[in-house]
Amino acid sequence: MTIGMPRIDRLPAQERGLTIGDFLVPIRVSERMHTRARHLALILIGTALITLGAQVTFYVPGNPVPFTGQTFGVLLAAGALGFRRGVAASALYVLLGAIGLPVFAGANRGLAIVLGASGGYLLGFILASAIVGRMAELGWDRTIPGAVGAMLFGSLAIYAVGVPWLAYVAYGGDLNMAYQQGMATFLLWDGLKLALAAAAFPAAWWSVGRRPGDR
Fold this sequence. Notes:
Oligomer: single chain
Strand order of the largest sheet: 1-2
Shape: globular
Distance between the termini: 31 Å
Order of helices and strands: HHEEHHHHHHH
Radius of gyration: 18 Å
Structural class: mainly alpha
């Protein structure tokens, strides 16, 4: 008796590495652009998407970590752009905020934010982008179950970095307190963002005529 395991690679070789982001630039425009310029444009779009998400922010008294739309932007950008471009978009976002541009939650800025209580979540964005981006390149984003799986792994990666960081910086190493304040409080909110991001990708593939399962 064997136990079936889900396929990691869900695409034929000729489609591997293709993401929905490759359809964001119209074909006529894309044909006139240098490949590097096209990739750069997509990376900047991804960074802008994360920045816009960060401006959806509200704080709960006593909690150093705010509710934001950043995770939604990270998951969308990574799934749309793939591994390299998704990581570049998230890394550029963190870099821009660190050097003083008001791109972080609530238009905050500076290295102090990166090194502060929520800094682990910012660094977790980069790890999540790598995971979600690679899974998108392997076709996980083309069906609802696959997209949910990819977004779930990405969200868990953010927590995996953010919660221990929060415990160290804000709670003297108390992981339980960090879990309560930095994860449990956000599960419903992050679940909503995950569901929206997961639903967006199969719909986007359908809209460009590449329905899930078509070969």
